[in-house]
Design goal:
Distance between the termini: 191 Å
Oligomer: single chain
Largest sheet: 4 strands, antiparallel
CATH superfamily of the largest domain: Band 7 domain
Number of helices: 7
CATH architecture of the largest domain: 2-Layer Sandwich
Length: 299
């Protein structure tokens, strides 16, 4: 009987030691940060955001308990939101954000757990998206200033988180999808098509005007070049004729008889050189005076 009581007492002692040890020691993963609570109130952080102290830790049994929070960046998908842009276009946007817990004590005091934090941050993100995107046009949201608008949204969400003392740091905000409501797609497409057609017509009109200007300049250059060339040709021809006349005059002046003979031959060639010419002249005509001369000029 005494031996049985001793065994039972030993087993009870071992159980109590195991219970105490289980409530005293705990392991903190390197990807986690632990908030130690004393009677439900947060008192300290183990392996916090700026620390690197994971491993086996101890706490006061039955007095303190531990809640572990993620140290890594955490994604949050926002609910699909309908936004009215400044040009009154309605857009369906899907957004997501990434955040991390940098002050676990403040996070626990304000939000309590990660599920509550996700709900709170989703409301903040949707509110910021409506405010920021509502001040931009649909073109800016879709392509024109998308990156700038996302930076502005991230800054606004981060400011609201700091003002609310949520203990988190917003690292990124992005739009994963931007669509038009089905009822607006056709109208927006027609408006974009009309705008592009107007732009194309303007470009074509400008190109036609530039073409006419270029062709007018080219025609002007051609006229100037041709006029200059014709003037130069007339001047060159006049100089040549003047030189020819001077040469003829000098030659005729040296030998008048030869000059007369040469001019008479030219007259013969002009009058008799054509085969279809018929002339009726007297043999005693002065026109044939050169035929009447013999050798040495004798008749």
């Amino acid at each position: 009987m005494t031996q049985s009581r001793t065994i039972i007492a030993g087993l009870v002692g071992i159980f109590l030691v195991a219970v105490v040890a289980a409530n005293t020691f705990y392991v903190v993963d390197q990807r986690k940060q632990a908030v130690v609570l004393s009677f439900g109130a947060p008192v300290r952080v183990v392996n916090g955001f700026q620390e690197n102290d994971p491993g086996l830790k101890a706490k006061l049994p039955f007095v303190e308990n531990v809640i572990q929070l993620d140290k890594r960046n955490q994604p949050l998908e926002a609910d699909q939101e309908e936004v009215v842009a400044s040009d009154q276009d309605r857009l369906i946007v899907d957004a997501f954000m990434r955040f991390r817990i940098y002050d676990p004590l403040q996070f626990y005091r304000t939000l309590g757990d990660e599920h509550t934090a996700a709900d709170r941050l989703q409301r903040v993100l949707n509110s910021s998206l409506r405010q920021v995107l509502g001040s931009a046009t649909s073109h800016d949201i879709i392509a024109g200033r998308r990156e700038q608008l996302m930076q502005q949204t991230r800054a606004d969400v981060a400011k609201q988180a700091r003002d609310a003392r949520l203990g988190i740091e917003v690292t990124d905000v992005r739009l994963s999808r931007v669509d038009l409501p089905q009822a607006n797609e056709e109208a927006v497409f027609r408006r974009m098509e009309t705008a592009r057609e107007q732009q194309a017509a303007q470009i074509r009109s400008l190109g036609e005007q530039q073409k006419r200007e270029i062709m007018a300049d080219a025609d002007k250059e051609v006229a100037i070049t041709r006029g200059t060339a014709i003037g130069q040709s007339y001047q060159t021809r006049g100089d040549g004729d003047a030189k020819r006349a001077a040469i003829y005059a000098a030659a005729y002046g040296k030998d008048p008889a030869f000059a007369k003979f040469y001019r008479t031959l030219q007259a013969y060639d002009g009058a008799l050189g054509r085969g279809d010419t018929t002339m009726v002249l007297s043999p005693q005509s002065a026109f044939f005076s050169e035929f009447e001369k013999g050798a040495g000029g004798a008749k």
